[in-house]
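[Primary structure, fold]
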Amino acid sequence: MTHASNQPMKPGYNGLFIPGPTNIPPQIRQAMEIPLEDMRAPDFHEFTMPLFEDVKKVFKSERGRVFIFPASGTGGWESALTNTLSPGDKILCSRFGQFSHLWADMCHRLGFEVEVLDVEWGKGVPLEDYERILSADKGHTIKAVLACQNETATGVTSDIGGVRKALDAAGHPALLFVDGVSSVGSIDFRMDEWGVDVAVSGSQKGFMLPTGLGIICVSEKALEAHKTAQMGRCFLSWEDMIKTNDTGYFPYTPATTLLRGLRCALDMIEQEGLENVFARHHRLAGGVRAAVHAWGMNLCAKEEKWWSDTVSAIVVPEGHDAAQVIKRAYEKYNLSLGTGLTKVAGKVFRIGHLGWLNEIMLMQAIGGAEMAMKDVGIPIELGSGVAAAQAHYCETA
């Protein structure tokens, strides 16, 4: 058996350290290895109704409502926009990485009036600018504010509670939409406390599943806005979902196999404890950051307040190509590292540290990255990052 490249397969596991899809735990794989089932069976609701409620717990929401689409996070973005807004509505957003850029691009393509704040890549949501613009919008023409909690392209985490404070300080009624695709289930997210109206996530990151589910949580305010929203929608319609979800079913064929995996993932998160999940991610990320500093290199995130606990984007020294590091790691060491996207292409490589993983797994990523960098001529001392990460993990155990 060979790879698609016709190169012989190497023994051992491939190291998957991109920021999603993430590693799937064996128990989740087993939960999905079942015969296909009747999604209209009389007892199917006994499975789905508790599932909806338990997903809400990961978003830290009691008052919200969950929708699970056979889609990705991108489908969740579109669902948020088309179910709450009307043609020509004004949206405020910021662009500081590839995924915040893509969400803004979607807004343009759907025909909204979009005020985009361009921020240096490596920084996060510009809270002061948000508050200034919202305070100046006396007629409340801005109908929605977008924020990316964790910008996967740059390894930047933004302060969503701070966005809520900006809205409140301005006395502005705009809806707050948050991209939590690479944060929900890994980094603390507080749907109700922060007054988030639509939170978007996906199955392939903190939920530890294959790609294929767009998971969103929706506030009562957003559900009320849905009643008068005039955007066209069909497949992603909340109205259709509500009618059928209320009885435990779906308006079309759901991804039942993934739903069974989701049930297992939620049980695993509950068993570990959500706060413990957050603490584990913070500790594991600290080891990666210790390694980066030991290499004498920098994160793309400009300040500590923006450091992400789910992905580190690592800037290679001037004159070196991060793409060569990624290529060498993959071809020689069976290690998948995240690539740099658009503005940071060739400048950074990324280590994803989210989902189902532990210290030893991350030592594989750190050690492999060291070898790949050394191979392509980046002047680092072999073992320096490994030792720094080891020290961090020993000291914080």
The chain has two domains: 15-23+274-396, 36-270. The domain at 36-270 is CATH 3.40.640.10 (Aspartate Aminotransferase; domain 2).
